[in-house]
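Input set for joint prediction.
Command: fold jointly, output tokens.
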Amino acid sequence: MSWVADNLDLIWGLTLDHLRQSAIAIVAGFVLSVPLGWLAFRYTPLRGTVLTVIGLLYTIPSFALFALLTLFGIPYQSELNLVVALTIYAVAIMTRSVTDGLASVDADTRSAAIAVGFGAWRRFWTVDFPLAGPVVLAGLRVTAMSTISLATVGALIGVQNLGYLFTNGSQRRIIAEVFAGVVAVVVIAIVIDLVLMLAGRALMPWTRRNAPLSRARLRAVTA
Amino acid sequence: MNLLAEAFAWIFSPDRLTGALPLPTAIAQHLAYTFGSVAIAAVIAVPIGWLIGHTGKGREVAVFLSGAARALPALGLVVLLYLLFGVSLKTEAAVAAFVVLAIPSILAGAYAGIEAIDRSVIDAGRAVGMTEWQILFRVEVPLGLSLLIGGFRSATLQVVATVTIGAYIGVGGLGYYILQGIPLRDFAEILGASIVVVVLALVLDGLFALLARFAVPRTAGPRRRSARRAPGSVSVPQFSH
Amino acid sequence: MSTARTRLAVALAGTAVAALALAGCASSDPLSGDSTDSGSTTDASTIVIGSQAYYSNEIIAEIYAQALEGAGFTVERNFNIGQRDVYIPSLEDGSIDLFPEYTGNLLQFFDPSTTATTSDDVYAALQDALPDGLTVLDQSPATDQDSYNVTAAFAEENGLTSIADLAGIDGLVLGGAPELEERPYGPTGLKDVYGVDVSFQATADTTVDELVAGNIQVANVYSADPRIKTDDLVTLEDPKGLFLASNVVPVVNADIADEIADVINAVSAALTPEGLVALNVESTVDQRSSADIAKDWLADNGLS
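tokens >
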């Protein structure tokens, strides 16, 4: 693996780019999916349709989505195209998690909050959302790993990130380079997953006791 | 929107039936890779998943490995396996990559399906005197079917998307047009091929939705409510296009 | 209740800070940079050099970069951009200043119906075809053009020295990048100019492997590809000029052309066809990085 030793700065630089692009997409996706998920949760008749349509966004293969985004004036080979596409995928996965999470909150707890006099806004932020936390977090972890691995396709539309190691390694036929890229992506994904899991434990201390896996959480993880 | 019209014109143009890769052939190749890879992944993942779900052992390892496998970047895996297998085995390399990417979803669908079953139902089975095999095949598998199908659905959608990347090492499929269109600056071609892939994905997703509906075992009482929720809801997809 | 909310707020704030920090770190990386940024913030004396998503082109770009740095310029690298659609506009608006290109391919980009084929004709036609705001410096003797190749064994079996000799052989399969199918020098060109019938297989990066394995008989291989030598391939002659000559040429933004002409022209003159192949060998066989290869080449040629 001397190639790896010789090219550590390259790998590091690309890793930072990769993390940056993924982080923006994950955060943006999360932020967008909260209101969407809440809408789907609140208006039950709409729920099935909204979730299915949003979920279908994920079935659009990456190349196709890059091409479709050009219809909105985004240049095909640009980082903007990649980040917007990654955000859309993130929203597609996360929205269902948010909805399922909110749905998994015990109805009695919600009634109690209403009885005590919490308004809708306060109830959402202090009762519903925190209690939906475990399911939302499971979805967020899946989203994060998905985004990080998906981002590599950017190399084929000229965006610089760890995917460069695949196209460049393929041209120069340097197996170590391609392997290093695969390992780097997997390692980053696992690290971010761990970070999210620890953040979840820190933010939601009530989940530390081993709660039985609810069907909603199982569903989020199955994906 | 002119571009959209051009894309459709590209799809339905008679030129698509001639040339190095006629469109119907590309679609057929694409579907063949998808079904083939999912089938192979199923043969590997379903028994293991059922074993994990039934015995409850090995779950953490499975979860960790399938989590790590999900993080595998499709493009990297395809290129790596190609470089390792060599050009004469490039189809095998591509299929191997697709299989690896399909396994996590199916594995998770298999064990999660069994884990979601109410323990009392399984205990009842034991109480009635069923052997472990009978419990597995007569109780756990049928009840876990909806989540298993959900796993298949995710895996299939993921592979359909990943097969487009296979074109990078020249194995055909709809990705061929996209990789051709980029240097030629032929956006009608890129968009047209993309639309075909999306339609394919939607059709497959729809088929699975129908299948899920039929997979719900007919049991009475409270189980009905959770069963009805299962079919439409298990569509949080897998990833790494 | 407020504890959960505070924690959430802290978490969100922390994430935002982390994302911004990463953005800050990453943008100082020399290989990063969105090429579609128009109006870059670099000051007038910085030369921005781009490259294609092709390792050989990246080496040449790195040579330009180090040569200019040696001459006292400040250089910013913006490599691996991808397609001409992306970097040509950047060259025109000044967000990229210098780019290594290939005369024939670039000419076809601007003037697809061109009839020039020889090296000098192509260069002259290119100078005319370029839009205002862009110009080319001296072209280099080094070439990296499309060429049709066969294995040495196949050439001997069929007595092949030029493309014309392929006419009449049945069952020929041509391999190359997917877009070759549509290029004027692709299967249609072979038929029209030489009367050669081929079926096409898109082999992209696997082209040489397929040729060596015998799955295809004719392959489009870039003339500077070291595998022509290492895998014992025979490049078929092209007497009727199916392919345009494609020499390495620096494309520059017209405003800064004079400033850097001396340095870059010296580099171009020193880059020979064999030299370019040798550079590619260093990258693929020796697996050295572009930076190292460029440094040594400049030192060997007395240009650093």
